[in-house]
Amino acid sequence: MPHKITKNKRLHSDVCQLEIKAPQIAKRARPGQFIILRVDEKGERIPLTVYRTNPAAQTIEIIVQEAGTSTLKLCNLKANDQILDIIGPLGEATAVEKFGRVICVGGGVGIAEIYPVAQAVKDAGNEVISIIGARNKDFLILEQQMHKVSDKLYITTDDGSYKRKGFVSDVLKELLDKEKFDILFCVGPIPMMKVVSDITRPFNLRTIVSLNSIMVDGTGMCGSCRVTVGGKVKFVCVDGPDFDAHQVDFDELSKRQIRFKDNEKISLDKYKEEHTPCRPR
């Protein structure tokens, strides 16, 4: 069943924010869950976290980074264009309760995934300290939104073009050296999540990461998203995406993620050669 795009906002050159008509998903989706969509009949199945829902308007919002041909097509659709199909909500929702003092860490487009979690734990009565980072100022997203759901917000950029120069892990280590926290949620690139996990382990700080492994069917049947957690095989699409970071085999996960990287780059380069995308306004 096709789903109409109601809004497309460009956050920066490679990232867009899409609002999509999806009544049932808007009604049921919870923080931490995701969808899988196909742009058209030739499109790949793309897993994307639900950034925000509006049940009254029957819409969901997703934030997409152009990383391959299908995401490039998706980001260049306009209002009233249609996506071929969407399934969801998929995965287990993030477990939210009154924890106490919570750290939320987001890197790159992972900020779009940590935002609904930060909002949910804040609404549950927790104190929320957030740390977000990007490679530079232009790639930083959702700063104002994160401010609204955080008691305190720290911002880093790799090159120092905005706020503090460095990485989210630098701020995290400083905070843990002088303050006590009850739980940490983290979403971002796999290397970043591994570093965060390594930092929190000596402090015995419960650390939950949302994994973004390669997926195909979203039902646990294909096995593409399998990951080893605590020495056991888990499937991110049905058992996750949230897992105890200190139990995740990040080295294995990293190796599995690069399986299709070269093919994705070749496909994207070919598409860009054959098309001159019209950026939505």
Q: How much of the polypeptide forms β-strand, as a percent range?
A: 25-35%
Q: How many β-strands, per DSSP?
A: 17
CATH architecture of the largest domain: 3-Layer(aba) Sandwich
Shape: globular
Domain unit count:
2
Low-confidence stretches: 262-281
Content-based structural category: alpha/beta
In CATH, the homologous superfamily of the largest domain goes by the name Nucleotide-binding domain of ferredoxin-NADP reductase (FNR) module
Q: How far is the first residue's CA from the last residue's CA?
A: 26 Å
Widest β-sheet, arrangement of strands: 12-11-10-9-13-14-17
| CATH topology value of the largest domain | Rossmann fold
CATH C-level category of the largest domain: Alpha Beta
Order of helices and strands: EEHEEEEHEEEHEHEEHEHEEEHEHH
Number of helical stretches of at least 4 residues:
9
Radius of gyration: 18 Å
Largest sheet at a glance? 7 strands, mixed
- Give the fraction of residues assigned to helices: 25-40%
Average pLDDT score: 88
Detailed description of the structure:
The chain has nine helices and 17 strands. It is an alpha/beta fold and 281 residues long. The chain folds into two domains: 3-90, Elongation Factor Tu (Ef-tu), domain 3; 101-210, Nucleotide-binding domain of ferredoxin-NADP reductase (FNR) module (Rossmann fold). Strand 15 and strand 16 (232-235) form a beta hairpin. The protein is globular, with a radius of gyration of 18 Å.
Outline:
By secondary structure, the chain is α/β, with parallel strands linked by helices. It has helices at about 25-30, 70-75, 110-125, 145-150, 170-180, 190-200, 235-240, 250-255, 260-275, and strands spanning about 5-10, 15-20, 35-40, 45-50, 50-55, 60-65, 80-85, 85-90, 100-105, 125-135, 150-155, 165, 185, 205-210, 225-230, 230-235, 240-245. The longest helix has 14 residues, at about 110-125.
